[in-house]
Amino acid sequence: MSPAVISYRPENPLIVQSDRTLLLKVAHPHFEQVRDELARFAELVTSPEYMHTYRITPLSLWNASASGVSCAEIVETLNTWSQNPVPQNLLQEIEDHGTRYGKLRLVAKGDRLALEMDDRGLFWELENQKNLQGLLAEPYPDERGIYLQSGMRGEVKLQLIRLGHPVQDMAGYKAGDPLAFSLAPTLKQSGKPFGLRQYQQAAVDVFHAGGGPEGGAGVLVLPCGAGKTVIGIGCMGSLQTHTLVLTTNGTAVKQWKQELLDKTTLTEDQVGLYMGDVKEIRPVTIATYQILTYRRSKTGPFEHFKIFEAANWGLVIYDEVHMLPAPIFRAVAELQAKRRLGLTATLVREDHKEEDVFSLIGPKRVDVPWKMLEKDGFIATAHCLEIRVPQPTDERMEYAVADQRQRFRIASENSLKLAVVDELLAGHPKDNILIIGQYLEQLRILGERLGAPVLTGQTPEREREVLFRQFREGQLRILIVSKVANFAIDLPDASVAIQVSGTFGSRQEEAQRLGRILRPKGERNLSFFYSLISWDTSEQEFARKRQTFLTEKGYRYLIETRRFEASGHLSEPTVWKQLLEETKA
Questions:
Q1: CA–CA separation, 226 vs 435, rounded Å?
Q2: Which residues lie below 8 Å from residue 525, measured CB to CB, with a gap of 6+?
Q3: pLDDT above 80: residue 47
Q4: Which of 237, 318, 519, 526 could form a disulfide with 492, with the two C-beta atoms 3.0–4.6 Å apart?
């Protein structure tokens, strides 16, 4: 790739460096436009107030290529917005990595599978890779392809992506047993008209790809509240086949069933649940990840993996695919002849298995801009405020002598956060409010202080459902929840979330928690996300990491720093009060 020489333009917002990092000035008038363009092919690394850092990685380039973004478009974006000429070595790396997706094609040859390639040099490289020994069979006579050993479709793709060679899987899929049904024209519960929104139908069409081998496997990334379940139902409708849905917990399982019965012509006896004491295998079966990873001992077999073979599934849906437990990757590798759909608000995985998701579930096919949906009113406009709270003297002394892990917990359980929660509740007297935290003792204290129920992973399923119903119906205005709020929980009436503690620097958790309040709210389509942080502690540093993903999606955190006044009381909140006044107007 040899583009024309680009002159130095100091007024531009982007600094492009030879180590694949990109520095973007936040104060530049074109910041939002450049941010959205970079998000198509680069990963946000850090997002302090004045300068955001991105990194171009092989995986970000492969995802870009799979979603139709060409190397020429990437280079054009860099040349258009860079202050400096784009380093030649980076241009070469974009060409090298960005064009790799599609060089290796997995195809069906009769009743066998083969890797095809146009480059004989690539053939010789693969033939001599130790990691591929035992996975590949004999080569084509012209050295432009290699047959696979039987049953190695997933393992070959997994090993190749780890070697830096993503595979475009064009081998097709087994149809699965047929299941005739249609989407309902009106919702059965409310009687309101029902149909897929334009972006939802577009996501279904990209995944289905007319039923050809170009589609049928991939991940669709949309914010919470944008209707990922509806898109999954739309994909089922386009395929008309037996489907296995895997999701995060029992509540999500029941919500999937409720949505299917409400929005399709499927009947009660066609939808089965597979969890706890209920083990129903039906044309549509919904199971939890937890039950699939159950085994009697650490070295024992996963007893419920048999569900993958219990029926002739034509589609497997992985809800909240960013939460897919590592052991299930083994089963996913054996399911490559099935169509596979991943749904998520964020592809970020804290175990760094994004490459495994790419190769075994499929590449990112759709990433709908959150701010676009907000602008169109499909999700609520969310205001994010980080409130930095000082520590009382005794807790500060305890923090100073503790080890790193203890420090984080001490900072997270800062007792002065309770007073700030009181203030926030007083500022939202009519809103439905979620208080979300990591530490159960902290949540118990809040529950007693506020006279509000506390919902944790130990709360019985029946009690959870009662609390969720009361919250949705307005009988309950404040609900305190633990990490269960990170998962697929339908709380459509929540308009305020107060995060009192979190899981170190988990970016996916931050996205999921904001997602709890993004469902559209009618005429006043506003939500508020408050994150309480002990300032000048390790919690503040982890909070910056947590916020990275949402910053990439266009959200900005206002900062309110509370300090001790001479009287010993906390200073008055000014940024928060100004925010409330502006949103009232």
A1: 22
A2: 377, 380, 381
A3: no
A4: 519
**Residues 6+ positions from 361 with CB-CB distance below 8 Å:** 217, 218, 219, 318, 321, 324, 332, 340, 341, 342
- Distance between CA 69 and CA 90 in Å, rounded? 17
Q: Tens digits of per-residue pLDDT, 530-572?
A: 999 999 999 998 888 788 778 777 788 899 999 998 888 899 9
Q: What rounded mean pLDDT belongs to the chain?
A: 90
User: Of how many residues is the chain composed?
Assistant: 585
Number of helices followed by number of strands (H, E) in the chain:
22, 24
**Interval 250-276 mean pLDDT:** 94
The helix or strand, by DSSP H or E, that contains position 328, with its residue range, turns out to be helix 328-333
Where exactly does CATH 3.40.50.300 map onto the chain?
198-368, 375-584
Q: Which of 530, 526, 525 is nearest to 513 (CA)?
A: 530
Of 543 and 48, the one with more pLDDT: 543
Please determine, for residue 8, whether its predicted confidence score (pLDDT) is greater than 70: no
pLDDT digits (tens, 9 = 90+) for 106-138: 999 999 999 999 888 888 888 889 889 999 999
Q: How many CB atoms lie within 10 A of CB 26?
A: 16
3-state SS, residue 93:
helix
How far apart are alpha carbons 390 and 374 in whole angstroms?
A: 34
**Kind of pairing, strands 364-367 and 217-221?**
parallel
User: Which residues have a Cβ under 8 Å from the Cβ of 493 and sit 6 or more positions away?
Assistant: 432, 471, 472, 474
User: Region 142-162: what's the mean pLDDT?
Assistant: 92
Do 507 and 348 contact (CB within 8 A), yes or no? yes
Q: What kind of fold does domain 107-169 have according to CATH?
A: Alpha-Beta Plaits (3.30.70)
Residue 56: pLDDT band (50, 70, 90) is very high
| 512 neighbors 489 (Cβ within 8 angstroms) | no
Round to whole Å and give the CA distance between 55 and 43: 5
Please, what is the angle between helix 393-401 and helix 404-412, to 10°?
A: 160
Quickly state the pLDDT bin for 141 (edges 50, 70, 90).
Answer: confident
Q: Do 263 and 230 form a contact (C-beta atoms < 8 A)?
A: yes
d(CA 426, CA 450): 12
Which DSSP symbol is given to 452? -
- Cα(469)–Cα(575) distance, rounded to whole angstroms? 34
Cα–Cα dist 145/461, whole Å? 53
The listed CATH number (3.30.420.40, 3.40.50.2020, 3.40.50.300, 3.10.110.10) that belongs to domain 198-368: 3.40.50.300
Distance of alpha carbon 5 from the chain centroid: 38
pTM: 0.85
Task: Please give the pLDDT value at position 115.
Answer: 95
Q: At what angle do helices 88-98 and 71-81 cross, to 10 degrees?
A: 150
Looking at residue 541, what is its pLDDT?
86
> What secondary structure letter does DSSP report for 192?
-
What would the mean pLDDT of 350-360 be, rounded to a whole number? 87
User: What is the C-alpha radius of gyration for the chain, rounded to an integer number of angstroms?
Assistant: 25
AA letter at 44: L
**CATH number of this structure's domain 375-584, picked from the four choices 3.50.50.60, 3.40.50.300, 3.40.50.1980, 1.10.1040.10:** 3.40.50.300
pLDDT score, position 519: 84
